[in-house]
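Q: Hi! New to this. If I give you a protein sequence and the SMILES for flavin-adenine dinucleotide, can you show me the bound structure?
A: Yes, paste them in.
Q: Okay, here:
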Amino acid sequence: MYDIRVTVKQNKRVSDGLWVLSYHAPKTVKKILPGQFLQFRLTSSTDPFLRRPFSAYKIKGDVIEVLYEPVGVGTRLMSQMKPGDEFCSLGPLGNSFTPVKKKKVLMVGGGVGAAPLVFMAERHVYDKMLLGFRNKSVVLPKSEAPGSKSNWIYATNDGSVGHKGFVTELLEGILKEGDPKQYFIYSCGPKPMLYEVARIARKYKVDGELSLEERMGCGVGACLGCVVETQDGYVASCKSGPVFSIKDLTLEGLKSE
Amino acid sequence: MSKINLSVKIGKVAFKNPVTVASGTFGNTNEYEPYVDFSRLGAFVTKTITLKKRVGNPMPRIAETPSGMLNAIGLENKGLEDYVENKIPYLAKIKTHLITSIAASGPEEFVKMVKVLDKQKVVTAIELNLSCPNIRGKGIQFAKHAEEVGRIVKSVRDNTSKLLITKLSPEMGNFFEIAEITVKSGTQALSLINTIKGMAIDVYKRKPRISNVTGGLSGPAIRPIALRYVYEVKRMLDIPVIGMGGIANWQDAAEFIIAGAHMVATGTVNFVTPRASMDVLEGLEDYMKRTRVHSMDELRGSLKLPEHILKYE
Ligand SMILES: Cc1cc2nc3c(=O)[nH]c(=O)nc-3n(C[C@H](O)[C@H](O)[C@H](O)COP(=O)(O)OP(=O)(O)OC[C@H]3O[C@@H](n4cnc5c(N)ncnc54)[C@H](O)[C@@H]3O)c2cc1C
Ligand SMILES: Cc1cc2nc3c(=O)[nH]c(=O)nc-3n(C[C@H](O)[C@H](O)[C@H](O)COP(=O)(O)O)c2cc1C
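A: Thanks. Here is the predicted structure of the protein with flavin-adenine dinucleotide bound:
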């Protein structure tokens, strides 16, 4: 866990609405695992005040890449950064996905929730990458796939790319067809999507892990601002997570505020 | 150059330097271990504990606001027994003073807790958190009445020989009256200030940004208010103060010390810069060197007031 000043290497669009920012972090890349995240301090001013959490998306040599969508002050600031600009990166933080050997892996991503799944796909074999987006402008293009692109399947709300509807419908379709017991799920995305993934996983008795993207304060388990409900009560998602076994979470806790 | 003496004394306790951390902003045990050598802190302060476990408030618990944040964590903690069994063994290894922050529903519960903590050798001081603004309904309440506060402090004082600190918030309406009664009842230092109640609304959802509706505002946004309370309390009462509220760097810390604070704590800023307390410590030492100040006693309360203000005294 390092708090380091880093320099932007590249900051580029990969679709109309999605960006990838990269920076050198030789010590951090050696430690970071798929599912772990980084806390960025984007400015030395107090506005925005708190750090912003981002999952590691890809590792290329000494370089970390993060995938992001400009949605607010912090991410918009990020999209304006140029090669050579400096910011602070704290991490790697949190836990990581647990690799599985004997099961076929289904990845289910929603929006920028694809980021940690792509990192997982870079390091481990998987069967299918199911990705859901609002529409074409924010679709993560297949050219971003590490290795084979043929097992990337899309859903968009408006049908502009792939299946028209929710990515969780693709998931349920697959589980309905074959023996669900052969599968294991990794998923990351907005809470309503994770709720659906957890509900479906329970229905078909499939194991899996969810990476939660709760609003965070410190990112290290000190402020208790990002708790999620587990079978044992609240835990800080930054420290006990962000990855949780579906079994350990409650459906109630995954309901949106 | 002669060596700078950073140590400060409160009651009978000598702290190696004036820099500490605010309760609830530095974890319970090892959260900041990768970033800060705890033994360099003047003291380590743990998040407020209660007699019994508390689950805290539902999410969302925090919201960012200009130069600060609102929080309504709701004093989530695992309770006194867990603290003694599971936290103290770790905390005992830290080579600095330990300040244990506690909250309770009334004098009897405070006394119960203090009797247990009094037996813990590693606990240097007990900080009474009488000022958490995020608790609703029955149980632990924001102590509002001066007499009640007096009773709490007095009954705790009668049951421990540890250094006794009381933490107050400007939310306590009759603040100066309460501050005075805590001193009369035997508190040996005041921690100033706890958060100030605030609110933020998501205009698209038309919902409060935190589930508790209101929460405690902290961070640089409240610094001038905190500084004012430290200054005014020091003008009024002869009591050591641990100053906090938006301290983000050594300049901020120096302001509180010049206004009269014995010690200073970094709070919310730890979330943004985990090393903030160390930056404050190093910056203060360097500032003292550069301005030829040799000891904390020399710097503390050295505020130069305008003539016309002094005349009124
Ligand atoms: C562990 C983790 C990993 C993440 N990984 C990525 C990633 O790889 N790529 C990426 O683009 N984003 C990721 N996020 C989300 C990202 O941190 C937020 O989008 C970012 O903090 C928003 O900052 P902002 O200043 O742009 O938006 P703000 O101006 O702070 O907020 C814009 C709007 O989004 C809402 N909002 C902000 N954060 C959250 C949240 N966590 N949950 C629900 N609503 C929220 C706000 O209430 C507001 O309405 C991750 C979050 C977590 C916790
Ligand atoms: C997330 C959070 C949790 C806090 N929890 C506690 C607590 O448990 N007990 C307490 O006395 N103060 C608590 N505080 C208040 C701080 O200790 C401090 O008094 C206040 O935040 C002002 O200082 P700051 O602006 O530097 O943060 C908390 C503050 C924050 C932001």
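A: Chain A has two domains: 2-93, 104-255. Let me know if you'd like me to explain how to read the tokens.
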